[in-house]
Amino acid sequence: MKQVPLSALVLGLAGLIPFLWGAGTVLAPGLYDFALANLGPRFMGIYVLNFYGTIILAFMSGVLWGFATKAEGARAGIAFTLSVIPALWAFFMVGGGPEGSIIALIAGYAGLLLLDAFFWKINLAPKWWMGLRIPLTAVVVLCLAVPLL
Q1: CA 43 from chain center: how many Å?
Q2: Which residues cross the membrane (predicted)?
């Protein structure tokens, strides 16, 4: 695997901030109180994890769609079909209550990592892709799991 470009790494890490914030407001009562008083309940704990987790899972479908544009023939059809799975997963599976949604998101991100690996393996994703996606996904899944503990 090649080294991850700095801009992709910085933006990827910045994308973790809402996940880390959500987990932090679950783990730290003072941070929870601050968020409740200053930001409102949507921006704390399990709620921000659900909202942002759903948005990013759908966003990642768009990333995979972009990779699919490099494919040709039957391979393109497969790649385009696979690329929409994370967004459809988020649409159909998230929304069954806060805890059930978190479980669905964790499963969605695990599945997304498998799709990332597939697109990388067939050379549609950049050579550095898995070097970025594995650690980001690990942090996301850990953050999502915090409210379930």
Answers
A1: 17
A2: 46-67, 74-94, 100-120, 132-148
